[in-house]
Amino acid sequence: MKIKDIVNRDLVNLSNCEHEPIHIPGKIQPHGFLLGITLQWKIDFCTENVAVYFDISHTQMLGKDFSEVFGSEAEDEILAYTNGDEFRDAFPLEIELLGKLFQINIHKSDGIYILEAELLFADREKLADAYKQTIQFVSQMNKTTSLKDLCALVAQGTREITGYDRVMIYRFDEQYNGEVFAEDCREDLEPFLGLHYPHTDIPAQARELYIRNQLRLIVDINYEAVPIYTVDDKEGKNLDLSLSILRSTSPIHVEYLKNIGVGATLTISLIHHGKLWGLIACHHYSEKNISPEIRLAAKLQGQFITSQIDIRQSNDEYINAQKTILALEQLTSLDLPIVKESLEKIIAAPQLLEIANASGVSIISRDKIFKNGLTPSDDEILNLIEKINQKEVVEIFSTNNITEHFPEFAGNSNFAGIIYHSIGSNGHIIWFRPETISEIKWGGDPEKSIIKDSNGLHPRNSFAIWKEIVKNQSSTWKQYEINAASQYAHTLHNQLILIMLSEEEEKYRNQSEILKETNSELENINWISTHDLQEPLRKIQLITSKMLSEIDVISTESISNSLEKVSKSANRMSGLLEDILKYTRIKNTRDTLQEVNLNEILEATIKEMSEAIKESNAVIESQNLPEVHAIGFLMRQLFVNIIQNSLKYASPDRAPKITITASQEPVIIHDLYKVYCHWVRFSDNGIGFEPQYQASIFKIFTKLHTQEQYTGSGIGLALCKKIMQAVGGDIYAEGRPGEGTDIIIYFPCDPADTLLPL
Q: Which of 474, 396, 393 is nearest to 435 (CA)?
């Protein structure tokens, strides 16, 4: 019978170091021995060191029945143990083999029972002691709230239970770079807490083994590996030691541990949702072994962490999440009018930043940008939206490293992280976070984690703290922040839809009003053309007809009087036609509104009407008038008509006096579906009018007095009404019979008025 060892002697190089077959080393650590037994209970694999424990060599054992070497009683005891699956993983089998007491772990691999035996601990801790320590730990664990506090407690508890010099809770990031998240160590040791280690320190195949085998023990880092031998009966024969307790470690890992001065290690895997979340890494600076009870108690420490990760992380985020939820509730409960100006109140609300814990935010609607906080320039925002659209983002996009997706924005510290949300076909909302320059302390240069020399590959031998400065990144967006931003984006989208519908309704209402007024105007114009225009025409016809019939006898003086009457009638017709032309030329001009200083308009009006004012001995007093959103030449026409109206209807008992007052600051004036921001009041001491005529005096050609009492077409105040409608404002009159008249005009809001309490 030919016997061979299965030691893996393949060289590790740069092309295969990440695929080093560490699960089939073909050798074990020397603090125990290993047997590979077939399903027929023949010894097919055996470590060379069995001779250390028994008076029989590995060559003598191989190929024999297990019972032939160790007796049928031992075989029956092991068979009974292997049938008790619920106990096999927790407690090793205590058994006597050839007069010596051992603790045995057994598992199956590729149809082979792998039996690993260690001498029974003579002074091992009792299970009751480990149980007592565990109960104490659970009691303390319930007093912690955060994940970091729990991990710190586990590090302390594991060190107390195991007696290792240093215990670290090692947490992985998304790329499997590690961070020492918690630590407990001897006072004389340099702490590693907070240090980071590159993913190459624990390569992919090692992480895979940590998932499969959750406890890993190296008793003496300076051990000499013991080869495994087998019967040479087929090519490529090997033994998978993934679940082995005694499996020999990768030479690169051993050298790594020697470089940091470690003498023995215990590693416990922390598995969360099927992934390797982290490790409990225990270091001792001399050789050290621990009993099965202590191994089990240490393994339970890992179970405590993994069972609490979701709960503790949720608890860590709970307070901030509650603040976000409160801000979202406050923001969505704002009492907002359904007008586009409401976006000014939204963008100014501090809760808009708080829902995502952002430093800046911008809303883009109908090609207008509203901003608050620390934001990019308007051009950069528009460029960013264009780039996001080119990525064909359907609705939402978030990142804490904008340059990773859009390198052209590198160097702009105003924003490194964004949450973007589309809000309709032409709307966007973006939350911003600035660049957060962070310093990461690595346990050695991560770029030099593997060193190549003439003798092959080696782990780094320098673990001096190496600092890395990370730029172009913001703090990471939490999921609850992204969710809150998304929820409010939908709320804002609905608000914009309501505003659009309201504007369409207002447009329809205005068009209906304009149509109604136009029909009324047409009726009035038709009436004046058939009545007021025909009356002077009839006079002209009557006078000229009489003159023609008396041409031979009429005197020169009579002809002169008749022609004067004809001229007056013709002038009246001309005035009526001119007023009608003025009235019909006034159109809706809201799209061309601009800032108009009413003080300048009043000054020009008084100058233009100086003769009429002087002839009437009128006094005009005025406050400072505001700047309004209107059209200059129409305002002059408006002021002229209002002042002319006051002079025309002055009281014969007193000199005319006109007092002009106005709002000094923008104020909100609600009138049904309209909102106004400024008012101006013209108060005179004229004859006034009865309250029942309050609305009718603004109708075209409406006159409260006869032509003989007061001349004119009755179109002046109708012109005023139409002018204010044209600029989006309104006009009202209040009459006090015998005392005077107040004319009040209201002006629309300027979209740039951001100080308004909407």
A: 474
pLDDT of residue 396: 83
Farthest CA pair distance, the chain: 170
pLDDT for 359-416, tens place per residue? 888 888 877 888 888 888 888 888 888 888 887 666 788 888 888 888 777 766 567 8
The rounded distance, in Å, linking the Cα atoms of 198 and 177 is 5
Measured CA to CA in angstroms, residue 470 lies from 433, 435, 440 at distances of 15, 10, 7
Q: From CA 737, how far away is CA 750, in angstroms rounded? A: 36
- Among candidate residues 728, 699, 703, the one with its CA nearest the CA of residue 713: 703
Confidence of residue 458 (pLDDT cuts 50, 70, 90): very low
Pick the CATH number of 127-220+248-317 from 3.30.499.10, 1.20.1050.10, 3.30.450.40, 3.40.50.10490: 3.30.450.40
pLDDT mean across residues, the chain:
79
CATH 3.30.450.20 for the 3-119 domain, yes or no:
yes
DSSP string of 136-148, one letter each residue: HHHHHHTT--SHH
The pLDDT assigned to 578 comes to 63
Which pLDDT tens digit goes with each residue over 528-578? 455 455 656 777 778 788 777 777 777 777 778 877 877 877 776 676 566
Average pLDDT estimate for 635-656:
88
pLDDT computed for residue 157 by the predictor: 86
Class of the domain covering 334-435+474-502: alpha beta
What is the rounded distance in angstroms from the CA atom of residue 257 to the CA atom of residue 223? 12
Q: Report CA-CA distances (Å) from 349 to 297, 370, 386, 449.
A: 54, 12, 27, 50
CATH class for the domain made up of 589-758: alpha beta
CA distance 167 to 282: 4
- The domain limits of the chain are 3-119, 127-220+248-317, 334-435+474-502, 589-758
Q: Which amino acid is at 380?
A: E
User: For 414-434, what is each residue's pLDDT tens digit?
Assistant: 678 888 888 877 788 888 888
Domains 127-220+248-317 and 589-758 share a fold: no
